[in-house]
Specification:
The chain has 23 helices and 27 strands. It is α/β, with parallel strands linked by helices. Bound molecules: beta-D-glucopyranose (BGC).
Length: 734
């Protein structure tokens, strides 16, 4: 079988190796473990985990405790060829284990070390949801490139990224890890991440194999509650949730992680239709599939298997190639093959896929990581920091500005809110390799920029508002900047929220700040869209700054002080109330579109519209759109629009093109993003922006995965966000 990474000769080598392997050794390749923690601290490990997730100890304290943990690395099992992969980040120890695998096991097959390098390693970049707001493929690729270099220097071969779960429900904590709600933007993101992490040649020595996760539709977990059930028409899967995965597979992605959720009644872990039919056959995926952590074991609680033994059999038959931490394959697979319950050919297929990735990474030739590389990034290179700053700036979205921003030279700033001064909170969830000394808080960023700033906490995210602290800094101030939002542990895995308003008493802080009569800027620091209608109504300037990584403070300072003109556009809708969730712009058309009349698709007690639509984001300048035309060339739709910078500073606008298929054999979305273009315009400059769209991109999948191109009328929308657009109707004949 040929594939994107290996030569015929390498494939041949894999076959030779496979023919020498015993059943035990085959099962061994399919077994991934984390080193088990066997002691080294006073409390039971689960209690420690609880303490860190509940915020009773900080992540830094937790990391310190973990440095003293006593681990069991299962050396004997490695020697016996019973382990194929470890989930770890310890370069020296990894080399030691690798030496056992390569020099002391019978066939010398190297281990593959996997780790969650999600949005950076030592250099932490913005959380993916923020980065996706840059709408910048160059950025998506470059941050992955840097993360790969840094992680590979630490003897990590394989990252559990990119996360590609379309996220349309802000209640779901893992929206923070995702590129948002749109399949087109998420597909550009997914391709760029594969190029960035894997580089041109996987075996170049500074690349990581990617793991597309979580396959699939995890973002559609019912009611935004993590790990919850997913029911979905197959056409929706093919048209919306699958495309980012398919695009990344086409780009050469090496591995895929199955999702925790069930899909239409069958957990993804044991879902033969998803793993074998859709991914491996229809999408032509040649790499291997790993389960999510303990997910094979979770199938027992799903009630789809009787016990771990049953789970092992069903997972392997379904096409699950590697077991992450469930000990299912290592416990049962051999005897299941011997008993004729699982065909050995399925194990061969799985092992072939795993060996392929190991071979493609160059691990057979270069299994070890040179020790001098382990400290390569102990001092952060300037270029990495510069990319972190650039990415952070481009990820910021200006949500509101009534002539307050940028701040005027010499203005005295009262900076308030706990998050403004917390450098360890700026990195967001899934930040594993960072050093708190690298982190620039917003307070520090303003000081670095030479701003005249006085800081008081005045209110915590969860601790009460202290009016006197606010008063202590506002007296002499010209303007109040309040940093409000969420802590790291309020988003990410197992961090869904039913109430999306500002936690604690932070709204009180804003109210009191406004009551002083001074102008107020709200800077949001959060891992998901928040419902802030009152803030939108009352506070004259709002900056969505997310969790922007190590350079957050400098980036926010540049935006506040105007040395950078914000250009980010939302990759996810901001609902007005949590009750509107899931809320996303590309919703299927209903028979009674939301309107003023009662018998339309709406709530009695919520506004019709979300607070901020997908694609939304302001600038310090303004843009005017005119004279949209849409015409057809042979295989193309060509849209042209005049865009003018009507304000008084240079700016970069993201011109967005959406399409609506007006009549089709299946209900289609009210609008779908199909193209965008970034243009930089000087004040007064006007440009004709031309966007070309292959006609073939106007089709859609039916429930049998047939791609349909149906003649008829389409609306073409072009504008500054998904709501404010010009529109032209065209008739398309394929
Ligand atoms: C998460 C995955 C992650 C894995 C390994 C799981 O809990 O769902 O996204 O890659 O752990 O850390």
């Amino acid at each position: 079988m040929s594939n994107q990474w290996l030569s015929e000769m390498q494939e041949q080598k894999i076959e030779e190796l496979l023919s020498k392997m015993t059943l035990d050794e085959k099962v061994g390749q399919m077994n991934q473990l984390s080193p088990s923690i066997v002691g080294g601290f006073d409390l039971p490990f689960p209690e420690l985990i609880e303490m860190v997730t509940e915020g009773r100890i900080s992540h830094e304290e937790f990391s310190k405790i973990m440095q003293n943990a006593e681990m069991d690395y299962q050396e004997d099992n490695i020697r016996a060829g019973r382990i194929g992969s470890f989930l770890m980040n310890n370069p020296k120890k990894s080399n030691e284990l690798q030496r056992i695998a390569v020099e002391e096991s019978r066939l010398g097959i190297p281990l593959i070390f996997g780790y969650d390098v999600i949005h950076g390693c030592r250099t932490v970049f913005p959380i993916p949801l923020a980065e996706a707001c840059s709408w910048d493929e160059g950025i998506f690729e470059e941050t992955a490139r840097i993360a790969a270099r840094e992680a590979r220097s630490r003897n990590i071969h394989w990252t559990f990224a990119p996360m590609l779960d379309l996220s349309r429900d802000a209640r779901w904590g893992r929206i923070a890890e995702s590129p948002g709600e749109d399949p087109y933007l998420a597909s550009l993101y997914s391709r760029a991440k594969v190029r960035g992490f894997q580089g041109k040649k996987l075996d170049a020595g500074d690349n990581l194999a990617v793991c597309l996760k979580h396959y699939v539709a995890y973002g559609a977990a019912e009611s935004g509650q993590d790990y919850n059930t997913v029911s979905m028409a197959k056409s929706l899967l093919y048209n919306a949730y699958l495309p980012p995965f398919k695009a990344a597979v086409e780009e050469g992605a090496a591995t895929v992680m199955a999702a925790f959720n069930d899909f239409n009644g069958v957990p993804c872990t044991v879902n033969e239709y998803l793993l074998r039919e859709v991914l491996k056959e229809k999408c032509g995926f040649q790499g291997f599939v790993v389960s999510d952590a303990n997910a094979i074991d979770d199938c027992i609680r799903h009630g789809i298997v009787a016990d771990l033994e049953d789970a092992s059999k069903k997972s392997c038959i379904a096409g699950m190639d590697m077991d992450m931490n469930s000990h299912a394959y290592s416990g049962y697979l051999k005897q299941q093959v011997e008993a004729g319950e699982v065909p050995e050919a399925l194990l061969d297929d799985a092992v072939r896929r795993i060996l392929r990735v190991k071979m493609a990474l160059g691990l057979f030739k270069n299994p070890y990581s040179p020790e001098e590389k382990h400290t390569l990034y102990d001092v952060l290179p300037k270029e990495h920091v510069a990319t972190a700053l650039e990415t952070a700036k481009r990820s910021i979205v200006l949500l509101k500005n009534e002539n307050i921003l940028p701040l005027k030279k010499g203005q005295k700033i009262a900076l308030v809110g706990e998050l403004a001064d917390m450098s360890s909170e700026i990195v967001g969830s899934w930040s594993m390799g960072f050093n708190v000394e690298d982190c620039v808080s917003i307070h520090q960023g303003l000081l670095n920029a030479g701003a005249d700033v006085s800081y008081a906490k005045a209110c915590g995210v969860t601790s009460p508002f202290q009016p006197e602290e606010l008063q202590s800094v506002v007296k002499d101030a010209d303007i109040i900047v309040a940093v409000v939002g969420e802590t790291i542990s309020m988003s990410g895995e197992a961090s869904s929220r039913a109430d999306l308003s500002l936690p604690g008493e932070q709204e009180k802080l804003l109210e009191a700040a406004l009551a002083t009569g001074k102008p107020v800027v709200a800077v949001l620091m959060n891992g998901r869209p928040l419902t802030i209608p009152w803030v939108d109504q009352s506070v004259p300037a709002i900056v969505e700054a997310w969790q922007l990584g190590i350079q957050m403070g400098n980036a926010v300072a540049e935006v506040l002080l105007g040395s950078y003109n914000p250009s980010g556009k939302l990759c996810c809708t901001f609902p007005a109330m949590a009750g509107q969730c899931p809320r996303y712009y590309n919703h299927p058309s209903t028979g009674r579109p939301g309107a003023k009349s009662k018998f339309s698709s709406r709530y009695l007690d919520a506004p019709l519209e979300p607070l901020y639509p997908f694609g939304y984001g302001l600038s310090y300048t303004t843009y005017q759109y005119d004279n949209l035309t849409a015409e057809q060339a042979k295989d193309m739709i060509i849209a042209k629009v005049e865009v003018a910078n009507t304000g008084d500073c240079p700016g970069e606008e993201t011109v967005q093109l959406y399409v609506q298929d007006i009549t089709a054999s299946l209900v289609r979305p009210v609008k779908e993003l199909k193209a965008f273009q970034k243009v930089s315009l000087q004040p007064g400059e006007k440009r004709i922006v031309e966007m070309k769209l292959p006609k073939s991109s106007l089709g859609f999948y039916d429930d049998d995965m047939n791609y349909l191109l149906e003649n008829g009328e389409f609306n073409v929308y072009v504008g500054t966000n998904s709501k404010d657009c010009l529109m032209e109707k065209i008739t398309v004949i394929f």
